[in-house]
Amino acid sequence: MYPARLIQRPVIHELSKNFALVTNVRQASVTEEIGLVSLELDGEREEIKRAIAWLEELGIKVEPVEIQTIEG
Question: Is residue 20 part of a domain?
């Protein structure tokens, strides 16, 4: 979940450039007030943990989602 101040920032692009991860947007809804994104991350567990910590430092709320939830 993105706060309004980050809506215009290319966070997913930065994520894929700064970390050894493959990103895949599964679902997204973005308004002027908030951005909700279901993002699949593929990579080493430690790299994913570092990426999540970076996102949280930016003020993005990160919650794990099971892939079956998205596909169902």
Answer: yes
